[in-house]
């Protein structure tokens, strides 16, 4: 078990009243019973772990509470960005580490985070490389490596965009400083998950584009799908990941293709 970053984290909302080394881990989840335990166990060094559940129908809530997390429920799904901002609002510590339920922190990253929090004058915002798995294989190409993600910051120095999907971190602390240890990520454990996420993300992406006034058509769907495949498999050297690289390029292309087809139907 990793040593705690800090021993206390006051409930007061004033960030200045908290221990400057205290860490809140915030996680959004829905029907993640198979993975939430691993995620929470990997951050046993944190001061507090908060899970914002989106209305799970499995044992996610019970598992998270048994693992020691503080669990709140917000079942009215507003999209990934807004839900993550809700989770941020629940944090009480000086530092925030935002994770997804399919991610976990290994010993090297835990040690590096601890070293950051122990510095007298750390940067306000940090990013880290992400080591993602596609159906069991760690992907080294195709745009999936090193895949830097901003996940650690001083409270109040960053928030998420309110996008339905593919939310971004909006930093108020300048350019994020880099960490070297990777964050582990099981993006897709099997092809059922690939298809389910492809369907959900393409629908949300089409809705976002429709709200911005974008146009869809069969031609645009074919063009963007073909370009996405070429970029993933050739320009980003997805072919070096073998069969999994090809499958990733195909699923990326399908996501783009269906997003533009769904956008076309929204216009009607």
Keywords:
268 residues; 2 domains; 7-stranded mixed beta sheet; 4-stranded mixed beta sheet
Question: What does this entry look like structurally?
Answer:
The protein has 268 residues and is α/β, with parallel strands linked by helices. The termini are far apart. The strands form 3 sheets. Strands 3-2-1-4-9-6-12 form a 7-stranded mixed sheet, with helices on both faces. Helix content is 38%, strand content 21%. Helix 5 runs parallel beside helix 7.
- Spatially, the strands of the biggest sheet line up as 3-2-1-4-9-6-12
**Using DSSP, what is the number of strands?**
13
Number of domains: 2
Distance between the termini: 56 Å
Ranges where pLDDT stays below 50 over 5 or more residues in a row are 1-7, 12-17
- Quaternary assembly: single chain
Instruction: Give the class from helix and strand content and strand pairing.
Output: alpha/beta
Largest sheet geometry: 7 strands, mixed
The number of helices is: 7
Helix-residue proportion: 25-40%
CATH topology of the largest domain: Spore Coat Polysaccharide Biosynthesis Protein SpsA, Chain A
Element pattern in H and E:
EHEHEHEEHEEEEEEEEHHH
Mean pLDDT: 93
> What's the gyration radius in Å?
19 Å
CATH homology-level superfamily of the largest domain: Spore Coat Polysaccharide Biosynthesis Protein SpsA, Chain A
Short characterization:
The protein has helices at 36-41, 60-66, 80-90, 107-118, 191-211, 218-235, 242-267; strands at residues 23-29, 48-53, 70-73, 95-100, 103-104, 125-128, 130-134, 137-138, 149-154, 158-160, 169-171, 177-178, 183-188.
